[in-house]
Amino acid sequence: METSMSILIGVLFTIGTYLILTKSLLRIILGTSIISHGVNLLILTMGGLKKGGPPLLGESSTTFTDSLPQALILTAIVINFAVTALFLVLSYRTYKTLGTDDMDQLRGIEDE
Amino acid sequence: MSWLYLMIFIPFIFAIFVPFIYKLFGTRIHTGWFVFFAPLAVFLYLLKYIPMISKGESVHSKLAWMPSLGINFTTNIDGLALIFGLLITGVGALVVLYSIYYMSKEREALHNFYVYMLLFMGAMLGLVLSDNILVLYVFWELTSISSFLLIAYWYQRKGSRNGAQKSMLITIFGGLAMLAGLIMLSMMTDTYSIREILSKVDLITSHSLFIPAMILILLGAFTKSAQFPFSIWLPDAMEAPTPISAYLHSATMVKAGIYLVARFTSVFGGSAEWFWIVSSIGLITLIYGSINAVNQKDLKGLLAYSTISQLGLIMSLLGVGSASIYFGYGDESSVYAFAVLAAMFHLINHSTFKGSLFMVVGIIDHETGTRDIRRLGGLISLMPISFTITVIGSFSMAGLPPFNGFLSKEMFFTSMITVIESPVFGMESIGLLFPIIAWVASIFTFIYCMILVFKTFLGKHRPEKLDKVAHEAPIGMLIPPMILAFLVIVIFFFPNVVSEYFLQPALIAVLPGFAAAGGIDVEISAWHGWNTELFMTIGVIVLGAFMYYYLRKWSRIYSYYPQVLTLNNFYNQLLAGMEKLSSKLTKQYMTGFVRDYLVYIFTFMIALLGCSLWLSKGFSFNATNDAPINLFEGGAIVAMLIAALTVVFSKSRITAIIAVGALGYLVSLFFVIFRAPDLALTQLVVETVTAALFLLCFYHLPELRKEKSKVPFKVVNLLISLGVGVIVTLIALSVNNHRLFESISYFYEDSYTLAGAKNIVNAILVDFRGLDTMLEILVLSIAGLGVYTLIKLQLAGREKK
């Protein structure tokens, strides 16, 4: 499971990076989103998979999966949501103001 | 317990208070009166070392600074450091006194002026008293920086800014070279202490880094002491206020290079390379400076070139003196050691006569409004005291009796003649050049000294050419140069007192071989019979007077020198070329295109992680401990792969957005599989909201276009993204097989008793790491504010339209 997850994470990173390197703003946002999924899965996988029950006390299981990565990921998901939302609105505003979503044309002006 | 290191701090401590004093009393009392006490106090304190050091002892004190790195604030005072210390504080006190009358308290930003000056004073004291080479380097650069600030003190003037930049670039370049040289020295000897380095000379001379270290340290010394060809910054540094020129650019800072050469003479001296480089550069600088000084129209420019020339003189003496180490201790070597003694003597003398000359030139500038030789003349009746001081200073510089310059100039000739009499390092063939260059340079020195006196004070007074009505300066302004001029004469009559208390201890510091004998046996006297030196001096006077008389006839020669070949032109070309090159180079990679920057970041990441994985042999793969995988999970993985690929290949926006949404839901599915219920819930909520947000913006965002980019562009992107993916996978696989330590998560399994929560993850978030979560909420609200603002608010300017 860990091996196949590692490969999946690698693929997610590859696709995410590829999208970030393109010129279109929307693709870049989607790319960051995919990379953050990859990161979350990576952290979870690093903690070890299916080593015990869910980290809830008072349930049937006596051993638990690593709870710390889960807590970290929970924070990451929320922060990532905030970043994606801001990013999305920022690019919307950029497009509205400048009339393009092509990063190649969004270069800074000369000698700024 | 020695308070020596405290002395270094006194100027810095004063500097802290200067702005406050200026603010409180600045309009009523000149800030200089407060500053005056700093150099005075240190000067008086240093005086108490004279008896001890004249016996050949040295005082050492230590203050731990970064003991773990072996960097200690160690101070060491010996004969060499004492001379410099007294010059720095003595001339410093006089210059401060002078500046009180020179710098108007109404018009000038005095707090800046004195802060920079105190900064310099402290740095210079630290430089000469420090025993640790790294501390020495820090102070060295600090003097460069304070010099930069002081040259640019009137920053409204273009000349000031350019001069400051030039001095900064040249001296910092030399400083960095010196740092490399010092580090090499510490590598060879395994210590940062100068005293210990000096005691391990054998290790250094046999080392392969001997020559590189020597050249690098000399670069530092030559740039600082304005030796040819680095001398070009000094004339431009004359843009600084005259008290600063008198202090930094003639009496103290430019002698830091001399100090460095003297300090390391016992390390590098005795080798032919050191002898040749130091003495020949010194002689070239000597003649270059004196020839150029004759052609100057600005009095300060003349003094600047004469300073360059005199520094070259001292440098060449140190170079010749270093040969004494080659001979070891004995009669033969003491002949050469005499040159070191002469160097130290001229160092002191130069500070006295040049300091007074600079101050007088400042007075002339202050009282007549110009320093242009062509506009001045006939000031003798208006400014008799200034005239007297100028005569004393100039005649001393020209090497005439009864002034101290005569003595050291004679000693200089003696040393240069020594080179022919007992030749070393292949001097037999061209050794004769040394006294000849010295003699020719002295003739020019004589000429410019006469220009300084006679063109300024004799001739016809032309008030219409002056900006102000010329009159004698206030007495406060005259006192400092008078004291220096007084010293010029006193030293002439009592040279052996100076020799006993200052020169011999300094000689021992430079050449420790003579410590046992307590220096060399020498009696400095004004009259020593009809010898070669005296005939040389008479020749200088006769020929110099002759050439001065016919100056107008032959000085046109200067105008035939092509402008293209000047060092300044070379410097300007180099600077312009470097600016052009660097801007071209920067434009190459700073494209303004975000993708390019990301390419750099990702490439660097791949290289860094890949190399460390490779070099540390960190990669390992072992699937035996893997959790089992079932068909359902396998299906989810495949589904994710498909969803991810769909994003890349989809032609329409909506497909891409939905595919990313599907990815998010699949991730929450994985959270369920991996026993993370909280994550799954959160992910579901967040993904839904994100998808909604995407769809909201979707309406406004442009249609996804097919990427119209060239094939190489895509290939590079593909390669980089593949690299990133592979690296991440490799690291993930390796991590799975490395457990450096046991998981710390068991601590949280006690969450019910610790935090009263049965959900461990929740307990971590809201209790154990509660502060984190609070800040996370803060981030979320800031992002929310940002989103709201971006949607709702228009740009102010746009609304007006």
Automatic annotation (TrEMBL), chain A:
Membrane association type: Multi-pass membrane protein
For this UniProt record, the keywords arranged alphabetically read as follows:
Cell membrane, Membrane, Transmembrane, Transmembrane helix
Q: Which domain of life is it from?
A: Bacteria
- Subcellular location(s) of the protein: Cell membrane
Q: Where are the transmembrane segments?
A: 6-21, 28-49, 69-90
Is Phosphoprotein tagged as a keyword?
Answer: no
- What Pfam families does the database record attribute to this sequence? Oxidored_q2 (PF00420)
Where it mainly occurs, coarsely classed, is: membrane
Q: Which family does it belong to?
A: Belongs to the CPA3 antiporters (TC 2.A.63) subunit C family.
Tell me the protein's name.
Multicomponent Na+:H+ antiporter subunit C
UniProtKB/TrEMBL annotation, chain B:
Q: Identify the residues that the record assigns to the NADH-Ubiquinone oxidoreductase (complex I) chain 5 N-terminal domain, covering every copy.
A: 66-113
Keywords noted in UniProt: Antiport, Cell membrane, Hydrogen ion transport, Ion transport, Membrane, Sodium, Sodium transport, Transmembrane, Transmembrane helix, Transport
Query: What Pfam families does the record tag this protein with?
Result: MbhD, MbhE, Proton_antipo_M, Proton_antipo_N
The residue ranges crossing the membrane are 6-25, 32-50, 79-101, 113-129, 135-155, 167-188, 203-223, 244-262, 274-291, 303-329, 335-364, 376-398, 432-454, 475-495, 534-551, 597-615, 627-649, 656-674, 680-701, 713-735, 773-791
- The chain positions of domain NADH:quinone oxidoreductase/Mrp antiporter transmembrane read 130-418
MrpA C-terminal/MbhD domain residues: 639-703
Q: Any keyword Transmembrane?
A: yes
Location in the cell: Cell membrane; Membrane
The cross-references to InterPro entries, in alphabetical order and at most eight, read: CPA3_Na-H_Antiporter_A (IPR050616), MrpA/MnhA1/PhaAB (IPR005663), MrpA_C/MbhD (IPR025383), MrpA_C/MbhE (IPR046806), ND/Mrp_TM (IPR001750), Proton_antipo_N (IPR001516)
Q: What is its main location?
A: membrane
This protein's membrane topology, according to the annotation, is: Multi-pass membrane protein
Q: What region holds the MrpA C-terminal/MbhE domain? A: 716-792
What NCBIfam families does this protein's entry cite? 2a6301s01 (TIGR00940), PRK12645.1 (NF009285)
Q: Which family does it belong to?
A: Belongs to the CPA3 antiporters (TC 2.A.63) subunit A family.
Question: What is the protein's name according to its record?
Answer: Multicomponent Na+:H+ antiporter subunit A
